[in-house]
Each structure stands twice: as structure tokens, then as C-alpha cells.
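Bug #77: duplicate submission created two jobs. Keeping one. Sequence:
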Amino acid sequence: MTPIVDSQYLRSAGRDVEVPFRVRLKFNDQHAELTCSQVLRVLPEKRLVCFGEWDGRQVVAKFFMDPKSAKRHCAREKLGITALIDAGIKTPELLFKGMLPPEGMPVLVFQRIMPAQDLLTEWEQAGSSDLRAGLLGRAAAVIAEQHKAGLKQDDPHLKNFLWTKDDLFTIDGDAVNTRYIGKPLAIPESLENLGLFFAQFYPRFDGLVPKAFRLYAEKRTWPVDDDLSTRLLKNVFSQRNSRKKTYLKKIYRECSAFVCKRSWNRFMVCDRIFYNEAMVRFLADPDHVMNSGRVLKKGNTSTVTMVEVNGQNMVIKRYNIKNAWHAFKKSFRPSRAWISWRNAHLLASLGIATPKPIALVEKRLGPFRSTAYFVTEYVDGIDAYCLFHSDRITEINPESIVTRFGQLFQMLVDASISHGDSKATNYINANNELYITDLDAMREHRFKGRFRSAFGRDLARFMRNWADLPEIENMFREKIDKITKKL
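Kept job's structure:
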């Protein structure tokens, strides 16, 4: 029998909401029973979104749990949805508004669009530039309709759009700003909001923006000139930089994506997806698990081991303390594990492949740091040095690997990132992709002059790998020369 729960249970359950469950809602003289079957999103004590069934229909239910702001957010959600409907913009129908006893928690019940998936999922599954351009154009056209009606989504992220075979739906009325309703958004506000949307895509997709912007401009009956396009791209770069800074602050604290534990003698942060009982035991005593793992590298300053946690292979890199003087010097600054954790997330945010960062652990004594650990997924591949120096080179097309390196180096140039230790062994070829590893010396540069010097050293170090392979060296030299001419 599916249990019946109340508002007190949902608020106290945190992230551990068990499904299925039933709730009995009321609004004036109306009563309704809702069965929730799947949790889509939970912000503890703030918001819960579920798939469910209501009155024989498949629905999406939103529970507003914060006692201080629940009524305000619920009203704003309803206002945003109503504004979208009035503007003729497709959005799921609001079926019911009620309260969940005993505390009167506001609940909204929406039509569930089926079959459908969010635009982020559709984008990730798109297999070609033409498909991605089509998705981007459809989204830009919908955003143009919003702006024409004086509406804008304050956070127009990809999960706020539902893609079906024939339509694109806007969801999350709480994020719809109705301040300018009834009057088309001015050019500066429009470009800023559109730039925020485009900024969510990796820089390598910026080439798709001009075509999508033309579709947007047609909807707005704007002339597409160089001035507007330049202003849009500046907004994209600015918004992307702002989003990156905001995200890189989140990776060191408790949030929906990460579990974070701090104490006088320890700091730990872990990707919430991987945080389970086995991971808790592992992170509590990483050395114990490392002792039973396969050593990949053993040095004075670091030890790298492959371990298995909950049936999944992972790599843990321990940054060792050599002696008392070394401990003293390192205790006042961010550990190399801390830096690697940040750099891994930075690369991922730019669409540059690196083994997925899973956890960071630092031993501490108050503000002073000691031994630190950086945990990533294990990527089953072969490093570039071994690949080009082995018999396997006859099984692959070396030109394709060199081309991939050219694309990778160009992405690093575009982001002003130097690696700091560009040995070929720090690039893993796997899954038809190049993964960058060993990130503790990687730097993001503010000044072009310093970046050019650092990146030049990276390339010089990289080319030394091929001194005994003149044919490969010439192929790399040709690619690198094309890149360095633009610096």
C-alpha cells in the first residue's frame, strides 16, 4: 500500500524522499489525491518536483516547502505560467493549485508532456552540427517570442525547455520575469538574456550562434548587422565567464551537486552521484584502500593508485608530505589536490575531456593543510607516448590523433589555459577522445603575454616527445605552427 505523507514529512526528509507516496491536497472545497512516483528534483526544505498521477492523468507536481518564501514562489510560478499562456507561448497546463496539510504547503500540479525530454538531453544526444543548429534555432525563436511579449527567463537554462517531436515548451514559471510584460524587451536587455542562454554551451559551439541569432532577429524584425552580432558575442563571453566563476565557487561547498564535510582536522567534498556507503568508508580512510589497489605511480611527492569502490574503478592521487619543511611550506596554500579538483571542473565546464573528478580530501589542522587526495574516474585508454611508440600505431590513423591534438590545443588557446607539464603521457586516448590528466600545474591566464609564454613552454615540452619519431614530429609541427601563428 502506497503510504500517505504530509507536509511535515516532505520538509524533514531532506534529499531522502522515498517514492512512491501519496498526498491529499485541498483547495477551498476541492480535494484531490496525488500519487508521486518519481523525484525529479529536490532542494531540501525549499522545493520538491515529482512525476505522478492525479485524477487519472500523468502530471508534474511542485511542492514549495520553504515556510518563509513558499507562498511567494508559488504565486510567482503561477504568474509566470499565466503570462506565458497569455503570450501564446507553449507551456504545460496548470491543472490544480492546492495546499498540503497540516502546514498548508503550496502545491502546483501541471500537465506532464509525453513523450518529451529536456533540451539539455536532446542536445547531448544530437549527433551532428546540423541537428544542434536546428535545436539552437528553435530555442532562439521561442526566446524571441518571450522577449516580444516583454517576458524573459532570469535563468534560461536548457532544462527549462521541453522538447517534443513537434514543439518546444517553456517550463518553470518561477524563473519568468514579468517586469516588462506587455512591452517588447529593449535591445540591451534582450541581448543580455540571449547571451546568457548561449553562454551555457561549450565555446566550441559558438560557431552555431550567428545562424540562431538570425532566426531570433527575424522574429523580432531586427536587422542583423555586425554591431548587434558583436554585442551579442560580448554578452556571451561575459556571461560565460560569470557562470564559470559562480560554478567554481560551488565545487567547494554543499549543494545539489556536491556533498561537503568540514571539521577541524579534515575537509572533504564529493560528487553527490558517487556518494554512497562504500564511498563514505573509502574517503574516511583513503590510505587503507590505496594499500590494496594497483600502484600506477610511486614518487616522493605523489602516489597514484587505481582502486575499486562499489564495483567501479577509480584513480586516487595522494599528494605526499616529504618532510617537516615541506609540510610547513605547503600548509599555508591550497593543496595540489585542491588545485586539481578546480582545474578538472574548469576543463569540464569548457567541454575539454578529463577524467571525471569524484572527490577531494585534505587532512588539516585548523587552517593548516597536510596530505591531500584527489579521486577521479578511471579512463581505460592508452597515453599518447605509448600509443605513438607502440605497434598499435599501425592499427590507428595517426593523422586523426594529430588532428584531435590540434583541436584540443586550440580549445586551450581559446580559454588561455596552459597545462604546465605537457608530457605525452599526460594525454590519454580513449573513447575516440583525448583526456588531459595531471592537472595540478595547470593555469588559467588573465594576461595574453603570460599565457603565450606558458603555452609556448607546453608546446616545446610536448614536441620533445617525438624527437625519435621524425614523421610524427613533422605532423605535430604542422598543426602547432597553424595554432601559434594566431597567438
